[in-house]
From TrEMBL:
Residues 229-301 form the Disease resistance protein winged helix domain. Residues 43-70 are annotated as: Disordered. It comes from Eruca vesicaria subsp. sativa. PANTHER family: DISEASE RESISTANCE PROTEIN RP (PTHR23155), LEUCINE-RICH REPEAT (LRR) FAMILY PROTEIN-RELATED (PTHR23155:SF1076). This is Disease resistance RPP13-like protein 4. Pfam families: LRR_14, WHD_DRP. SUPFAM superfamilies: RNI-like. The keyword Repeat applies.
């Protein structure tokens, strides 16, 4: 009987996942109570700014019942308990809560999809009866109705998360590897216009592209030819191109702080030049103020493929054959679907000493390429030589597409041990690769690495503690890495870091190993920052108090996850400042409100938690900000009181409002009272933002 009472309750297959998660969460909460003290306590942290000394950092109180304890240094037993549990219980709590929230959203989405689809059953059935009872002719009215329904179905489809099927790694060289895509459908390899090169070169379109190519500078010629590696009619993202061209050394990543010399603007200028010459076309998207993706006309694409092949830059396409992996004359290797089963995939077939670039175009299992850069490969000529591949500058193993449709897998977690031998690497991308749980410490030996792209590595749980060894790092992207629960302490020691995407503010108790948001103030060059907040007592006030001294910050994106409901009016601000012990209790002095960083131009707030905007976010105080995005703020009711006789100095030109069911404002107030310099508005799922002259998809442009 006793064994039956102690046996765990295994959920039945038909159990409601939300209920099951909540029951498990109760158990974990009890474990948290037993294993960790419920009180918030002072933590001893190490700060580089004090020369390695120590100072006390006080955590904010999470509720009135919690009492402050003495310093951890006086409670060694407590410290041991915290260290043992810091990466287990709090992480499990957080992930269960996030999973519970996702399950609720999926259930709501399921209901919404069912409701929306059912609405169109009767109209479509009536249309069918009408066609059956008369001539089967599609009138303009019928076509318009079908197009409207199709657009609604497409919008619903975009809301459903993509869950790619896991493919099996091909086994033999003679197997039909690469014949299927990620969803089991056969891929049709259509010959491009360049298949018959001799005939194609006689066409006027080729001569036109060739003449325009000759007019370009050497660097821009390489930029244009790099577009030859992508399949026809594919959208290519501007940021990805910037990363690649920085890695190749085509555009500088350091220089003055003048806007036109920043890499982002240099890339825009190059792409504009190509657009003006009709070599590429911007992808039209009315929801974008300016294009961020580009395509190449098939005639231009084939011309560029031919020129690239003649020069020897890229060597993928050959007459009558599928794209194939080869090392080009100029030392570039492009991975295509099925490369892992080619004879050239073997280490002895691919001498890697002089490879400059490895770029994954369409291979699902690219980790075989790491073995090219092994100790044996480097030392086969001289057993005493140090293992180093000095030629390699770009190793782009991840996904270049912004969409998650192409699933990339790494079969062995050991493959990363070879990265340390790429001593001159500038760009390393593992974007979208699954099964990467951690980075090998060897990555931190890449002293010349400028860009580390880990976007959408869903299994990644932590970054190396000695990440500050990446002295040259300028771009670090860990966005959509949902398993990462904390930031390493030495992240704030990356002196050259300018762009940090995916910083996590978590509820980890022991902060001596964690980089806090406020400590990023040491990143004196930081221009762009995106943050995910998974800490229950970290609200709007705490956020802007932490970042107000970020002197170079221009672009900030914040997404709140699990936080407590807080009142962030003036009294809430003062209460917060009093609890953070900035001044002795006996000392009375006026405390300043948090404020926006001085150079902030773009602010994106997702899941904003409060019903009111704090003082420093009200439109009349946004005299520097140019772009304001507010999404998923289900409690937000308005922009604050502002009388017509008090003209605002608001400088916001681009405003995006999405999923704001309680926001009440009309167009006249929005345009004339709050945002008089407005040039672009996107309004979506904001039923009480009324009388706006937007088009059918909620977009307004200033005439």
């Amino acid at each position: 009987m006793a064994s039956k009472e102690l046996s765990p309750q295994v959920p039945k297959p038909k159990d409601d996942p939300k209920t099951t998660i909540q029951e498990i969460l109760k158990i974990v909460d009890q474990l948290h109570t037993k294993l960790l003290p419920s009180q918030t306590q002072d933590i001893i942290t190490t700060s580089r700014s004090t020369g390695g000394g120590v100072h006390k950092q006080t955590c904010s109180q999470t509720n009135n019942k919690k009492k402050r304890l003495e310093s951890v240094s006086s409670s060694p037993a407590v410290l041991v308990g915290l260290k043992d549990s810091e990466d287990v219980v709090p992480k499990l709590q957080r992930n269960l809560r996030m999973l519970n929230t996702d399950v609720i959203k999926l259930q709501e989405l399921n209901q919404d999809v069912g409701y929306e689809v059912r609405k169109h059953f009767t109209p479509l059935n009536n249309l069918l009866k009408k066609v059956e009872s008369s001539k089967p002719e599609l009138t303009k009215g019928m076509k318009k109705d079908l197009e409207d329904i199709n657009m609604k179905m497409f919008n619903l489809m975009k809301k459903v998360p993509m869950l790619p099927n896991k493919g099996k790694k091909p086994k033999g060289i003679d197997s039909h590897a690469g014949e299927e895509d990620n969803y089991g459908k056969c891929i049709a390899y259509l010959p491009g216009l360049h298949a018959n090169q001799e005939a194609f070169k006689r066409l006027a379109v080729f001569r036109d592209v060739q003449n325009k190519f000759k007019e370009l500078s050497t660097d821009r010629k390489i930029c244009l030819l790099s577009l030859a590696v992508f399949p026809e009619n594919q959208k290519v993202n501007r940021t990805m191109l910037m990363y690649w061209w920085i890695g190749e050394g085509i555009i500088p990543y350091r220089g003055t702080q003048r806007d036109k010399e920043k890499p982002e603007n240099v890339v825009k200028e190059i792409l504009k030049d190509f657009t003006d010459r009709n070599l590429i076309e911007p992808v039209e998207n009315r929801r974008k103020v300016e294009p961020n993706s580009y395509m190449m006309n098939p005639f231009v694409h084939s011309s560029v493929v031919v020129i690239s092949r003649e020069i020897g830059l890229f060597d993928m396409y050959h007459k009558g054959k599928k794209p194939r992996m080869r090392k080009s004359e100029l030392k570039k290797v492009c991975l295509v679907e099925g490369s892992s089963s080619q004879p050239e995939a073997k280490t002895k077939k691919m001498p890697a000493e002089d490879i400059e670039t490895v770029f994954n175009v369409s291979e699902r299992f690219p980790d075989f390429t790491l073995k090219w850069f092994s100790e044996e490969q480097s030392q086969k000529k001289n057993i005493l030589a140090k293992t180093s591949f000095n030629a390699l500058k770009v190793f782009y193993m991840g996904r270049w597409e912004r969409t998650p449709y192409r699933h990339i897998d790494a079969e062995s977690p050991e493959f990363m041990k070879y990265v340390k031998h790429m001593s001159k690497l500038r760009l390393l991308s593992f974007q979208g690769i699954s099964r990467i749980e951690k980075l090998d410490n060897g990555v931190c030996e890449l002293s010349e690495l400028v860009i580390l792209d880990l976007r959408a590595c869903y299994s990644l749980e932590r970054l190396p503690e000695n990440i500050d060894s990446l002295k040259a790092l300028v771009y670090l992207d860990i966005s959509e890495c949902y398993m990462i629960g904390r930031m390493p302490k030495r992240l704030s020691w990356l002196d050259n870091l300018e762009v940090l995407k995916g910083f996590v503010v978590s509820d980890v108790i022991v902060e001596e190993k964690v980089c806090t948001l406020a400590e990023l103030v040491h990143l004196r060059k930081l221009r762009k920052l995106s943050i995910t907040i998974n800490k229950e007592d970290f609200g709007v006030v705490q956020l802007f108090e932490a970042i107000k001294d970020f002197l170079e910050l221009e672009n900030l994106k914040v997404a709140w996850g699990l936080i407590n409901e807080q009142k962030n009016d003036g009294e809430g601000v003062r209460k917060f400042l009093r609890t953070t012990s900035y001044f002795p209790k006996s000392q009375a002095r006026p405390l300043p409100l948090p404020e926006l960083p001085k150079k902030l131009k773009k602010l994106d707030l997702q899941c904003f938690p409060d019903p009111d905007l704090p003082t420093w976010l009200k439109p009349q105080n946004l005299d520097v900000l140019e772009k304001l995005y507010i999404q998923g703020a289900t409690k937000l009711t308005g922009f604050g009181k502002l009388l017509p006789e008090n003209p605002t100095k608001c400088n916001v030109k681009v405003l995006r409002l999405k999923y704001l069911p309680r926001l009440v404002v009309d167009w006249i107030e929005l345009r004339n009272l709050y945002f008089p310099k407005l040039e672009f508005l996107e309004k979506y799922q904001c039923p009480q933002v009324s009388f706006c002259p937007t088009d059918g998809i909620g977009i307004w442009h200033k005439p």
